[in-house]
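Continuing the batch. This is chain 6 of the set; chains 1 through 5 are on the previous pages. Same settings as before, nothing changed between runs. Recording input and output for traceability.
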Amino acid sequence: MADLQEMFREATDRVAPGHGALDRQHRRQRQRRRRERGLVFGLTAALVAAFFAVIVATRSSTPSAPADHGTSAPVVTSQPVLEEVDPVTGATGTPLIREVAPEQVDVSPDGSHIVFVRSRAGHDQLFLANSDGTEISALTAANDVGCGCGVHEPDWAPDGTTIAFRGADLAGNQDIYVVDVGTGAVERITTAPTYEGSPDWSPDGTTIAFTRGDGDHPSVWLIGAGEDSRAVRLSEGSAPAWSPDGQTIAFTRAAGTGDGSDIWTIATDGSSAEELTDRNEFDSTPAWLPDGTQIAFTAFRPGDDTPTAIAAVDLRTRQVYQLASGLSEPAWTPEGSLLAIRT
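Output for chain 6:
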């Protein structure tokens, strides 16, 4: 504001206004300064009130479970849809489910149900549907409210009784939780102060792989599904996905050049790390074909007219090929059908 006033004075000096005009200018300046001070005071008061409201909400929260109430998150206006994709031709059929969040869904081990994320009362929560997209029902936050940070990244346990997910409490802690499909009861699995997400069950149901840290160097960790289990670091990377035989984990790792990301695999003992894609693109969210021969993933190429696509790598030949454009977040059904989200 001082700069603007100085510019104004310089301009008025150059045109040399008369005494009466100068007085009018001074009066207008004083009036403008009073309006500006009022505006600044109003904005400052609003910011202070918002700050203390956040402090009160944070101190009153209990971070033992995903929050069932909180400040509403902005409602997403777009309505992504879940579609079934022919894994051979890339053709898509009639949308299965509308108004899904643009993140991976998961199919129950028996193929009868789909779990996905949808915004409910301004909060992301888990929903269930039949495999054909019918009979949608809420699994979390039955009272129609939830944390604005939400519930994300569901992954079905092999026995079909529970679903792991990333949840947030009102204090902003992001951890791994498990919800009982039958009762809706929620159990917290991790409690570290860092971000923890992208859970994925081992095929035998004894271990959960997950991502810890959401900065420049996230890493893949393993933790037992039982009580008092200790997490073990496996590798740098994120978004882990177990192979069907339980011997290997696929994951996303930032490219060595710092531009893009690639799909890697690693043995569950931490050995035999291998880069599968190296294409100067952003490859992420790997998903294993049930027979273990291919890994589908999201491919993102900034600048393209259709930047997102589903691609796959054949583990027998290491050939990478595109399956379908305009889709992301691949997920396989037990029968080998491919599901993906169109945004």
